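Students often ask why inverse folding is considered easier than folding. One informal answer: many sequences map to the same fold, so there is more than one right answer. In these notes we will look at a single instance of the problem. The structure comes first.
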């Protein structure tokens, strides 16, 4: 069994592979990166992941980056965990990769426009007045599509890690004011997700990290 260490930071997309690992039930360690201290760009971490991003998964000491790669590797390494529905036709496999890639390459960048608008313009007021509303507009288009698709999970009756990805996105955007009222299926999805013991364990790991950061004075609440 490989030794697994996941670099994380609370509230980030590293929650998604944390959920995946908790669903698998395999032993793993998490390493907290302090974004407030820019530890993701410290030379020690850049030597592991030159992109300076979480999540980064060490598999017997060797790094694997990018949610698409980490989640699909975990699915293939631990197929009985059911991170994705079992399929063997190459086209069906590629469609599952497309679903995860949609979250990482379309939905996540839209989350960033809403959650971290200051990354796009060096003017805090303008970032909240212009960048965030344009991100919210783009996110409504995405969420209307997802609202119509959920039944009750992304793949119907079967929970998958795509739902774990959606759980993080919804938590992140509603946490900074994205209006939830028009999306009953998404609200129910978030509540149903929180009933899953693996998600509760992933959230508990994050809460421990938040407490560490608060005690150090290195915590910044989302706004
Ligand atoms: N394409 C990457 C994106 C990873 C990413 O953007 N991670 C963010 C947290 S959600 C991060 O590490 N941000 C730190 C920074 O940009 O300095 C993936 O899907 O894994």
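Output (designed amino acids):
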């Amino acid at each position: 069994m490989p030794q697994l260490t996941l670099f994380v930071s609370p509230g980030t997309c590293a929650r998604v592979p944390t959920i995946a690992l908790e669903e698998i039930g395999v032993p793993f360690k998490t390493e907290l990166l302090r974004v407030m201290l820019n530890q993701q760009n410290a030379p020690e971490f850049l030597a592991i992941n030159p992109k300076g991003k979480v999540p980064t998964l060490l598999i017997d000491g060797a790094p694997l980056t990018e949610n698409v790669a980490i989640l699909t590797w975990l699915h293939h390494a631990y197929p009985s965990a059911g991170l994705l529905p079992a399929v063997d036709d190459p086209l069906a496999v590629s469609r599952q990769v497309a679903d995860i890639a949609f979250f990482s390459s379309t939905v996540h960048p839209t989350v960033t426009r809403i959650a971290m608008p200051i990354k796009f313009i060096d003017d805090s007021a303008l970032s909240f007045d212009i960048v965030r509303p344009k991100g919210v507009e783009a996110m409504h288009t995405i969420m209307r599509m997802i609202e119509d698709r959920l039944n009750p999970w992304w793949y119907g009756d079967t929970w998958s890690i795509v739902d774990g990805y959606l759980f993080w996105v919804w938590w992140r955007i509603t946490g900074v004011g994205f209006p939830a009222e028009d999306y009953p299926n998404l609200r129910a999805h978030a509540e149903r997700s929180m009933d899953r013991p693996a998600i509760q364990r992933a959230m508990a790991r994050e809460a421990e990290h938040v407490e560490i950061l608060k005690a150090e004075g290195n915590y910044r609440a989302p706004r």
